[in-house]
Write a structure and sequence with these properties.
heterodimer, A: alpha/beta, Dna Topoisomerase Vi A Subunit, Chain: A, domain 2, Dna Ligase, domain 1, eleven-stranded mixed beta sheet, globular, B: alpha+beta, five-stranded antiparallel beta sheet, 27 strands
């Protein structure tokens, strides 16, 4: 297999390059003015390492896959066209009002709870660019008020006259009957033909989402329209660049649904968060190919902490109404929980409880932690890590950022000396312990809410601050196995390299599998199978359009189900694709019951109140080649400890006194070694903190295990002699 | 026994200790039933530290260890909250109208979920204390591991009877060391009207299910006999079943976390952490009170309706700060009305005071009842904000929400001059649930009764530096959701033909205007049996005020068009699909329609297909003088049709070009100078104003309840229907007669009979009545 996958992030463009059995990782700074430059630089570096030219690589690879935060950034920066929206009469303020809760989407709980400070973000659609048309369709698709064509023309003209550069049509109940939306598209094309100047892109809500909910569907379409231009240009730029370098196949864009597609089958909305989600995809792949079992992925960066769940058997958790930036939308996105804590999180005194709280404020990268010496005055998690001796001031971020330890200690003293009668080191220990604790609680909550038991999971850690905090977080969460995966520093790019071509289509449906009042089971099998077939057809068309063989398309049937009148549904994946009789109906009910019980506890199921299907969903995909990993052995039988290159005094949170701790370098990460904690292992890209009671076991391809020892094995380990001794 | 005489000279027995013991025993054994206990229900202070708590704390747990325990609890509560939100069958659950909390053994809230309704948890110390006092050692009940108690009666401690709770003890070695509770706004509760908040209830028995705390879960098993009774008692048995299971599941999840915490840190550390958290919050609140300037802020509110007839009833409130004491005095509040639904138990009123404190005063505080504990509340039982046992409380939110508004508004004034502010100075939040409650048979043949989520779009108060947020979260719940209409239409047989549209002039004007409310027009369709209710006040007298010169919210009548089928009309002529309350009520465009407007206390009204019901959600209060509003902001509002030209001219004194909406800067300056001159010309010295304006009593024709004036709170006015004619009475709350208002229909018949008699006398005819 030959393959290139790239994750273009805010700071770095990461590349994972597969050239038969050679796997190479590389990085370059992201070049925001022209993404192709950074892309090329990272690719060139990878090609050099693999010993092939860029041209040869691009000519021979089966695909170039691309994950990006471009859309996320455009949304944050508010860069996009003026979007005009047509809605149903009576729904003119639906978008503006954002379900009431729009003021708090994307904020932390403290800000959400501060009602006196509630403030909605700047709207993506100014209110004067929303117009209504006289039409109405009911919940089953019946036309109550027919469309008035002249009325539509009038409203469209007003939008265009007011400066709309893209038009979204989001009519109520268009998921059940898209006829009016489609008629409006025809009218707009008549008024503003595509070949004439003044033509404007038009997006229909019914084409963006098949799910009911006039606000979320309209907002999804608006976000799509807002990002369309930016994404179109950026993807074009990259495609052209690839073509110029000899790549003649379609580029593939990673989707936040966990799949990928060509640009012609990609909505801008589907690219949001695709980088981090590719990381979760990477975790899934690693789990599947190495028998890791249940995995919780943890990506701790400078400002945030992403938690993803990959139970054994594959990703099961999606958000169907995720929040993107400050906007709730309707899109099936792999569930990723982001906590607002990272190395830059500010520590402050909690007067009420006499404790220390971390965040939600962050020093970010500018000015950054106090130790960066760039004007930051308030202590952060990174300052505490430095004071505790975990970081080497001279070699942080590969030496790019020199750290000032005195400044870090001073910031801690300044912030806490009036309140706590403690030395800076003691405070730093509390900061470290607190942040680890909070992350552990986040993981625990995430798992338990979705029916997982912490002790059954392996933590997969990547991201800049993961290696320093992983032991602390895992200890507090009750996790005893941490894996830093192969190619951890480009793990999202690696994930992108293993995505499948996949499209998810869904539609709202009113299906009562068990009617509690009539005490009857569903028997309109044709109706439900027609729904499924229609969705499979859409998925297959998407894939065939991209050149895949229709016969190789596989389908996974999912439904959103509920008991009685519950309003929130549970997503259930099935092992059947057609419902052919009472047995199949009971199978659907049983599968739902099992998943519900796992998630919320046995006995919480309430089939007596009725069982309903609210959404039918089909994931259509193509299986393909994937990256194969070498063994991730952690048998616990290793006995050889490598040579330490230095020793440093380090403070551990659960140790009263400082500990002289051996320091190891990259050379120690060989797959037959074991390093017992306490230890520090510094590599070019990161620092592993092996806390007391933990041991580190490297594996091939750069993966590293951190394993909690039931008992300390130091005594029986063969220690190679410390060079400095 | 010995005999003596009392003050009035009558003989009085003096019992020996032994005799007294016999009497007590007899009384105890012959109690008719255990009603709400005043000792419990009137007390909102945190419980005194128990000997066991003292012992646990004395072991010396560190603040950092306690912080860890709290954080783990908080994570677990949020997890349980998400469970309820995800699994709940009640519409309220989906919209975050719920709460999950951990309590000390004596019932004080230590921590509650980050999201949800603070007031729900802040009131549950009452039932916990009731259970501890009455059922713990009662042989027929008792408390065992795995037991769970259900209740919904607000007289035992609940915001209102439409909410239902599940309270489960955490036990170790037979000892209760904590409680975990979950509450959801369930909606339907079998009241005289569907939806759980009957505006038409005239006795407590009309309020529907009134469960005192009962043990519905016995050692982990849901009791089917009691469950069946509860299901049988409401219109929606599916809802009852599903959500009892949901609450059980959520509470169990928290208890699992508690078990793990205890296993990790030990029982004593856990108990100490719970207790110390409550105490810490109380201490911090005292410290913050001390930062406020000493003085008294008065904030009186008036409700314009019993939800059946127009009245004016006062919610009096004086808030005094003295050092670290803060006293909320409700003396002067109007009396309870014994056959109207607006009365609120004191526990509910106080719960919303806690809501104001934790959401609007000090949102950074940990969510514990320690927040209200240091605050002294003076209130006399049998006012409408402190209702007695016999008063119906179906619409208790009318009283309790005003408890919220009193504190929210007063705090803006109290904190205005403090250098350290914990939240923004804002004008009042809208405080009515202008919303449709509904019930009947759905298009799927199910019997239901509940409400729309649209109540969650209350207008936010204007801030001191910007306009209030339009139709944002309700006062009682951050991040509540107004839901998706498409989803609702699939479930219930009515359409919102106008769904949340902001309409001009629906705002509290000011330098910064209040957040606007939205208009809603609904009509039923495809059902054999359906009806709507509305349950709020403020149709004649604004329910909230402005702040520092800003205007209050407008008044909001209910409008109805009967005798038409709008669906037929718009199908035949789509151009008629041009709906707004203003147009429909002014132009009356649909032939044959009966156009009606009324106050917002609509009792359940049968809605035929296509009849229009129209209401507006309310605005937040405005902040500051209208003449100080940036003229450009006025022009923007004009352009978006948020205000009328008349408001821009008459109130804001702005001059602009109506074609381009460009402000005439000089013209505006001149117009405002003129407006200020007119103000001065209208001005009157304060004493003269008082002389003309202030009267000894309310106008004779006004049905007025409560004290009159600022300084006469000891005496209240009321109208009494004891004799043939209504009679105004005045006196101390405890001395005035019981207030009941005659049935409107009876009064109408009486008036018609009287008129008939007059006509008979005048024309010498006799009308024969057939019975």
């Amino acid at each position: 297999m030959k393959r290139i996958s790239v994750d273009i992030g805010g700071t770095f463009s990461d590349c994972f390059f597969v050239w038969d059995d050679i796997y190479v990782e590389s990085k370059a700074l992201t070049t925001h003015h022209n993404l192709a430059l950074g892309f090329n630089e990272a690719l060139d570096l990878a090609c050099d390492r693999a010993g092939v030219s860029r041209q040869q690589a691009l000519k021979e690879v089966d695909s170039v896959r691309y994950a990006t935060t471009l859309g996320t950034n455009a949304l944050i920066e508010g860069v996009g066209p003026r979007v005009g929206v047509l809605v149903t009469h009576g729904f003119e303020d639906t978008i503006h009002l954002s379900r009431g809760r729009g003021y708090g989407e994307g904020l932390d709980p403290l800000k959400q709870g501060d009602m006196a400070d509630a403030q909605r973000p700047e709207p993506l659609v100014p209110r004067h660019l929303v117009r209504s048309v006289k039409e109405r369709i009911d919940s089953i698709g019946t036309v109550l008020v027919p469309l008035m064509y002249e009325d539509v023309r009038q409203q469209v003209r007003e939008l265009v006259d007011n400066g709309a550069e893209a038009i979204v049509v989001a009519l109520t109940n268009a998921t059940e009957n898209a006829d009016h939306e489609e008629r409006i598209l025809e009218i707009i094309l008549e008024e503003y033909p595509a070949h004439e100047l003044g033509a404007i892109p038009v997006l229909l809500s019914s084409q963006v989402s098949g799910r009911k909910g006039e606000y979320i569907r309209a907002m999804s379409t608006v976000v799509d329209a807002f990002l369309h231009q930016t994404m179109f240009h950026a993807l074009n730029q990259l495609s052209s660049n690839l073509r110029e370098s000899g790549y003649d196949k379609p580029m593939l864009v990673i989707h936040n649904s966990g799949g990928m597609a060509q640009p012609n089958s990609t909505d801008a909305l589907q690219t949001i968060h695709s980088g981090p989600i590719a990381g979760v995809g990477g975790a899934q792949h690693l789990s599947e190919t190495t028998g890791l079992g249940n995995v919780v992925s943890m990506d701790m960066g400078g400002t945030s902490f992403d938690i993803g769940l990959v139970p054994e058997g594959g990703i099961k958790h999606y958000d169907f109404q995720p929040t993107i930036g400050r906007w709730m939308v309707s899109a099936p996105m792999i569930h990723l929980n982001t906590l607002g804590a990272g190395g830059g999180s500010i520590a402050s005194y909690d007067r009420i409880h006499g404790a220390i709280k971390i965040g939600p404020e962050s020093a970010g990268s500018d000015p950054g932690p106090a130790c960066y010496d760039r004007g930051g005055l308030r202590p952060t998690v990174t300052d505490a890590d430095l004071v505790l001796g975990y970081l080497d001031p001279e070699n942080y971020a590969n030496g790019y950022i020199p750290l000032n330890k005195k400044r870090a200690a001073y910031a801690i003293e300044e912030a806490f000396s009036d309140e706590l009668d403690l030395e800076a080191i003691q405070v730093a220990k509390i900061i470290k312990r607190t942040v680890d604790e909070e992350m552990a609680i986040g993981i625990e909550k995430e798992l338990r809410t979705r029916g997982g038991l912490v002790e059954d999971y392996t933590m997969l850690a990547y991201g800049g601050n993961g290696p320093l905090h992983a032991c602390g977080i895992a200890s507090r969460a009750g996790i005893s196995k941490i894996l830093f995966p192969p190619f951890a520093s480009v793990f999202s790019a690696l994930g992108a390299g293993n995505m499948k071509p996949l499209h998810i289509h869904e539609r709202s449906a009113y299906i009562v599998l068990y009617d509690a009042l009539e005490r009857s089971l569903y028997n309109d099998y044709d109706a439900i199978n027609n729904y499924i077939e229609e969705l499979e057809q859409k998925g297959a068309e998407d894939l065939v359009r991209q050149g895949y063989d229709r016969d190789s398309v596989k389908y996974r049937l999912e439904m959103d189900m509920r008991y009685g009148n519950q309003l929130v549904t549970t997503a259930v994946a099935f092992d059947i694709n057609r419902v052919k009789g009472t047995g199949a109906v009971l199978h659907l009910i049983k599968t739902f019951s099992d998943i519900f019980g796992d998630r919320y506890g046995e006995g919480t199921q309430a089939p007596e109140a009725g069982v309903r299907v609210q959404t039918v969903r089909v994931a259509s995909y193509i299986d393909g080649d994937v990256v194969q990993f070498e063994s991730l052995d952690s048998s616990g039988t290793r006995r050889i400890e490598p040579v330490a290159v230095a020793e440093r005094t380090i403070h551990f949170t659960d140790e009263e006194d400082p500990v002289n701790t051996p320091i190891y370098d990259t050379m120690s990460l060989k797959s037959h070694y074991v390093i017992n904690g306490p230890a520090l292992v510094t590599t070019e890209s990161t620092t592993y903190l092996v806390e007391p009671g933990w041991r580190l076991e490297p594996t091939p391809q750069g993966a590293v295990w951190l394993l909690k020892d039931p008992t300390n094995t130091t005594d029986v380990t063969t220690k190679l002699q410390f060079q400095g001794a | 026994m010995t005999l003596t005489t009392n003050d009035t000279g009558n003989p009085q027995e003096i019992l020996s200790a032994q005799e007294q013991q016999w009497v007590d025993k007899f009384m105890d054994e012959t109690t008719l039933f255990l009603g709400p206990d005043p000792e419990i229900m009137r007390n909102h202070q945190i419980h005194a530290r128990t000997a066991y708590e003292d012992e646990c704390i004395s072991k010396g747990i560190s603040p950092l260890e306690m912080d860890r325990i709290r954080k783990r609890l908080a994570g677990s509560l949020d997890e349980a909250f998400e469970m309820c939100e995800s699994m709940g069958a009640a519409p309220g659950a989906k919209w975050a109208d719920l709460s999950v909390a951990v309590y000390t053994a004596e019932g004080d809230v230590t921590y509650l979920s980050n999201r949800g309704v603070i007031a729900f948890s802040a009131v549950l110390h009452h039932p916990i204390r009731y259970i501890m006092k009455n059922w713990k050692d009662e042989p027929t009940v008792g408390i065992h591991p795995g037991d769970g108690f259900f209740h919904n009666d607000s007289r035992y401690g609940m915001v209102h009877n439409t909410d239902q709770s599940m309270l489960v003890p955490v036990m170790r070695d037979g000892q209760i060391i904590a409680w975990v509770g979950a509450t959801i706004h369930e909606g339907e509760n079998g009241a005289c009207e569907p939806g759980g908040m009957p505006s038409g209830s005239e006795t407590p028995f009309d309020d529907g299910l009134r469960a005192s705390p009962i043990k519905i879960v016995e050692r982990g098993h849901l009791r089917r006999d009691l469950l069946t009774f509860l299901q049988h008692s409401t219109r929606d048995p599916k809802l009852m079943l599903a959500d009892i299971k949901v609450k059980m599941g959520a509470v169990r999840r928290v208890i699992e976390s508690v078990d793990r915490i205890i296993e990790e840190v030990g029982q004593e550390s856990f108990v100490a952490a719970l207790r110390v958290t409550v105490e810490n919050v109380e201490v911090e609140v005292r410290r913050r009170i001390k930062e406020l300037p000493d003085g008294t802020v008065t904030f009186n509110q008036f409700m314009d309706s019993t939800l059946k007839e127009n009245i004016l009833i006062k919610f009096a409130c004086k808030i005094t700060v003295k050092g670290d004491r803060l006293i909320v005095d409700l003396t002067g509040t109007g009396p309870e009305i014994l056959n109207r639904a607006i009365n609120s138990p004191l526990g509910s009123t106080k719960a919303f005071m806690t809501q104001a404190i934790l959401s609007y005063w000090w949102p950074d505080l940990p969510r514990s009842t320690g927040a209200l504990s240091p605050i002294e509340v003076i209130s006399e039982e049998h006012s409408w904000a402190d209702a007695g046992y016999d008063a119906p409380v179906g619409q208790s939110l009318q009283g309790s929400f005003r408890g919220f508004s009193a504190l929210q508004t007063a705090y803006a004034k109290l904190q205005f001059s403090t250098p350290k502010k914990y939240s923004n100075v804002i004008a009042p939040w809208f405080n009515q649930i202008n919303d449709f409650l509904w019930g009947g048979t759905t298009q799927h043949g199910e019997q239901v009764g509940n409400l729309c989520a649209d109540l969650n779009g209350m207008g936010g108060g204007a801030k001191a530096f910007r306009d209030g947020e339009d139709a944002v979260a309700p006062l009682f719940c951050a991040m509540a959701d107004i839901a998706e209409q498409e989803v609702m239409e699939e479930e219930v047989p009515f359409l919102q033909l106008v769904s949340k549209r902001l309409v001009r002039d629906n705002q509290g004007f000011g330098k910064y205007r209040g957040g606007m409310g939205y208009e809603m027009i609904v009509a039923s369709r495809g059902t054999p049996n359906w009806g709507f209710m509305t349950v709020t006040s403020g149709s004649k007298f604004s329910s909230i005020t402005g702040m520092f010169g800003g205007y209050g919210c407008p008044t909001y009548p209910l409008s109805i068009v009967k005798g038409i089928n709008i669906y037929d009309i718009i199908r035949k002529d789509p151009s008629q699909f041009d709906l707004s309350i203003e147009r429909i009520m002014n132009e009356q465009p649909y032939e044959g329609g009966s156009y009606q407007s009324a106050h917002m206390g609509l009792q359940f009204d049968v809605a035929k297909e296509g009849e229009l019901y129209m209401i507006s959600q309310g605005s937040g209060g405005g902040y500051g003088d209208v003449l100080e509003r940036d003229p450009e902001m006025v022009a923007t509002d004009l352009q978006l049709d948020r205000i009328s030209a008349q408001v821009a001219t008459d109130l804001y004194a702005v001059v602009w070009n109506p074609e381009t909406f460009v402000v005439d800067v000089q013209g505006t300056k001149d117009a405002r100078a003129e407006a200020r001159k007119r103000r001065i010309a209208r001005g009157t010295p304060f004493r003269e104003f008082i002389k003309d304006f202030v009267t000894e009593e309310p106008p004779a024709d006004l049905l007025y309840y409560g004290s009159w004036g600022q300084d006469n709170d000891e005496e209240v006015f009321a109208t009494h229907w004891g004799g043939q004619e209504p009679q105004r009475v005045k006196g101390k709350l405890s001395e005035i007669p019981l207030v009941m208002i005659p049935d409107r229909r009876v009064l109408k018949i009486e008036a018609q009979d009287k008129r008939i008699r007059e006509l008979e006398a005048k024309y010498g005819e006799t009308v024969l009545h057939k019975s």
